[in-house]
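Below is how a single chain appears once it has passed through the pipeline. First comes the sequence as given, then the structure the pipeline wrote out for it. We keep one example in the README because the format questions we get most often are answered faster by looking than by reading.
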Amino acid sequence: MQTPSPRRPTDSLRRELRFRFNDCVFDGRSLGLTVGGTVVKLERKQLEVLFYLLQHAGEVVTKQELLDEVWAGRILSDAVLTKCIARLRQGLGDESQAIIKTVHGYGYRLVAAVQVETSAAPSLPQIPELNPGDAPPLRPQWALVRRLGSGAMGEAWLAQHGKTGEKRVFKFGLDAGSLTSLKREITLYRVLHDSLGPRPDLVRLLDWNLDEVPFYLESEYVEHGSLLDWADAQGGWGQIALTQRLELMAQVAEALSAAHSVGVLHKDLKPSNVLVAGDRDSPQVKLADFGSGRLVDLARLEALEITRLGFTATQVGADSGGTPFYLAPEVLAGQAPTARSDIYALGVMLYQCVAGDTRKPLAPGWESDVDDPLLREDIAAAAAGDATQRLGDASLLAQRLRSLEARRSERAAEQAARDEAQRLRELLEGTRKRRRQWGIASAALAAVLCVVSVLLWQVRHAEQRARNDAEIAAAVNQFLTQDLLGQANPLVSGRSDVRVRDLLDAAVKNVGARFSGRPVAEASVRAALGNAYLGLGQFTPAQPELESALRLAEASGEADTIAVNARVDLGALHTRRSEYAKARDVLAPLLAHADPAVRVRGEIATAFALMAEGDFKSALARLREVRPRVETLLGPTSTEALTTLSYLASAHRQLGQYKEAIVLYRQALAGQEAQHGKGHVATLEAMRSLGGALYLSGALAEALPVLESASKLSVELNGPRHDRTLNSLSDLALVKQDLKDYPGAEALMLSTLEVRGAEYGKDSADYRTLLNNLGVLYGEMGDPVRQHQYLAQGCAAEKAASGPSSPDTLICHHNLALALMDLKRYAEAAALEQETMALGEPVFGAEHMFMGATRSAYAVALGYLGRTQESEKLFAEGVALLDKALGPGNDRTAKAIQRRDAMRAAMSAAPATP
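Resulting structure:
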């Protein structure tokens, strides 16, 4: 394949552009900038950076991109760019980052709304008129046969080889905009091909010419043309079997899902951009025309070593492209397109194919055109007006369409069972009434009862759950009113201040006697008691109740739901106790369960256990894989779907991917508030998680009010000594610490430590974490003795409980090394930090923030030991890692630099003796 020229023929054209944003005007010809009508004097490099960002308005531009574009050929540090951006913001009056936003760990994004003007109409060199018989440039053996189509993005022609007769399609660019489209399509095709390999459902791009006008792309010829052409050739959609139409749409969904899996959006999905190959009985679709497409992850280009063609020229309204019929509501509203925007277009196409008319828009009342209720559900799931309610993966639509017959049979069987059960209930009830009326059973009545008994036995499985539910409801109601709530009566308990824990303890004593001979009801009550203890953070009394519930439920053979819930709760209990092997064992049967909904619950619980064990990468992969299945099986707003969303966010957070974590936490919080309201315990957990992620990302001002609200709500819902309340207060203390409110942070940590030790034991993981955090706090307060005291105690306990390579142990050892340096025990600090670095890289990854923190601290210790050259090199590497993970100017980098500067000053004045 021909290698595209590195020249950029549109550079001079881009210089003719003028940009208006906020109250600023920037002229590409003169690089002149005015703000509020006043000329602003900036250095040329700063203006060139602004020019490049304006050309990519709304996109994330990496730091390396800017360095390559503005300082081409020079090797510079990130500090040069950081200083340049700071001066540029000063000139724009953009201290609040309302124009240029820092994307931590990646680069910058110009977020202001931009209007683009041209002072001279851009045009390509004179394009010769295309006529049948002409040979495309550099293709003398090929002749144009006929024009296939034309539009804003150029002209497409069928061409034929003079000797072999082979046919191909040439797409010509006739102006600057269409040239950009050609380039973008080249880039996206290379991403698709290099990431996915050859696929029969994507049109092959064979070659291109960007050197000589008219520029073009050369692609394979698909004999049946577009989906519209193919349908017309069959006599119209009405002549094509519905099963074949659905199979074609399933193929489109799979192709689209494959593109999305490597970060490529189509943005103009419609029937004319779907081509059809193969014979009439087994057609094969081919997704075509990515000229309007978009790459979500630009870093993939660098990873694949692909030149970024078509993503450098300015595009006016680039994200509004597409055909109105198929544009998602959020795109029409001005939001950036996403994979779900493509899935909306797919849903519209599915509706049109089922209705048999590709001219119909998806308008209100469309349901009347679709007789099959399952297909109505499928169309609604793909083309929901709210993007959050849409299918998250196009492949899920393919699965639905290909399992349509099985789904119909399953629905029919369920309805038949319900109808038969209702008929028999009515028959039996009528028989009982007559029996009471007559007062005696006749032979005829006996015969009727015999028949009814046989029929009831035949539908036992359909009726069993209803009977069990009724039995359990009655038994639990009696238990609640007499054994549980009855204990709250001072006349019964002899106390006026009974706690929930007291009620549970008293009730547990009566469960066995109350439900003797009724194992299903007993299992249900014990599962509820175990779950209540678990919610209170009381793991010791929770375990026997959950284990009894599981044993009784499985022995009965009639209480699978209770058994599943008990296993999930037991898995969480063992995980919270750091008993990871037991958690895996108790959850394993769920992963092999016959019910797919149970299997996904097992996957979620197992992912939680993996995160607790420190295997965040495996947990993240597992959650990404299971999330589409959870949303399909249980619904996108189900408790399980929102839990999966929160766990995904937590995995990203633990891997240092704070931007991704915050986005997911915000979605989870919105989902919980919509489902439960703002005062619910589930909303509280989502709020606390979001606050923690904001804190870790360095957004302290945003984190503080979130965590203050979470702490207040937790006290109201759970009480001041509950596990969740203590977690919220611990998080709040960390934010206060980073905001230099040391007295407030110390008071919260000490009070929380005392309650944790008394309520949950000094061997609990959270108690160990508090010891570590107190040590760090005293270090910042200038109290190295108490700093070392708490850290040494916490590290010893963490290492014994979790092992030397657990994330918590490594973090604690890093903090302990800093404390040793504060006590001038530099050799011990260096040895401990070196060991921590070696153990930490396989756990956190080479580019994690933690590796930057440990490397820079180790470098400072070496500096105190007189190993200056080695110290300077390692320190630069550590700070670079911190800046990459957290963004330039972050607090952790600043603290590292302060330590380095203090070391330099001490060594220059009087070198310390290790």
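The two ends are 63 Å apart (CA to CA).

See the next section for the split statistics.
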